[in-house]
Amino acid sequence: MGRFDLARRIAALDPEKDHLEIYQISSGQEFPWDYTRALEFALFRTYCVPSISKLLAATGEFRDRAQRRYDDTALLMAEMAAHGYDSDRGREALKVVNRAHGNYAISNDDMLYVLSTFIYDPIDWITRYGWRPLHSNEKLAAYFYYREVGRRMGIKDIPQTFPDFRNFKDSYEEKHFVYSDTNREIGEYTVGLFAGWFPGFARPAVRLGVRGMLDDRMLRAFGFEPAPAWVGALAGAGLKARAGALRFFPPRRESVLGRPKSNHTYPGYPTGYRPSDLGAPPPPDDLPEELRRPSRQDQGNIDMA
Asked: Is the dihedral of CA 54, 60, 61, 62 positive or negative?
């Protein structure tokens, strides 16, 4: 199989009808490392929104179990992508996600925004650092894939075109990326999580490197000091050098979706695990009422009032 045979396969498919196959090839064979890194930063990006970081801070999960929250999110999303959102494991993963979100008062716009980052942040990352340009079918397939995932999560008013959803994302960030103490709190926990994957002597450099990868809007929303300009330049040069080298690598013959090489929380995953084994615990008893989703009985009383 030639280096560009998978790209030619993608070009021959229909981005709407075949969106799952295209997304699986792109994220599981052509750019798995890039998708992983981009989705890490996509989630990080959502913590710049005070309404999102406030909820995360109130649950205490990022303070107490940041690694598990990261692993649960990554594995649940991988289950849907690897097996399809309508497969047995995909539906099981969606149930876990919907059950977790259903415990909290999360606005539809916040859900829409998080969904949009899963589409456009990997596209932007690969545009800058990918070993080849993304085909337009890959970009559109990501949109159609997450549109279907979003519908199954009960997210309403998903923009009906790729450009419209991009415009929603950009407008949302311009309006909602503002500093708050909870942004900084969750941001620091997340930087600490990233640094914790490396030996102790390397962690200060990792913390600096993460800051060097953040844009000005994110830095302001987190209240982080910018890293020296050379840090971001060095990181970008390294990623582009990696991309240049990968052009000469043989293509990946099998997808790595749903088969992580290692996992901090669930050793050996997916062997011996089901998606239902993942997910956050119920909300803490001291969660403020305004962050707690009303029970069905309470919601009925509200609707009747």
From this structure: positive
Residue 282 forms part of a structural domain: no
What is the total count of domains within the chain? 1
Cβ contact 14:138 at 8 Å: no
Altogether, the residues listed in the chain come to a count of: 305
Task: Give just the sign of the alpha carbon dihedral 161, 162, 167, 173.
Answer: positive
Question: Helix H segments across the chain?
Answer: 5-12, 19-25, 32-46, 50-59, 61-83, 88-101, 108-129, 136-152, 162-176, 181-195, 203-212, 216-222, 229-246, 296-304
Bridge partners of residue 104, in order along the sequence: 292
Q: What is the mean pLDDT of the chain?
A: 93
Residue 296 lies in a domain: no
**Nearest Cα to Cα of residue 293 among 280, 283, 303, 281:** 283
- The band of 294, judged by pLDDT with boundaries at 50, 70 and 90, is low
Residue 36 resides in a domain? yes
Query: Residue type for 22, please?
Result: I
| 123: CB partners within 8 A, 6+ apart | 134, 139, 142
User: How much is the pTM?
Assistant: 0.93
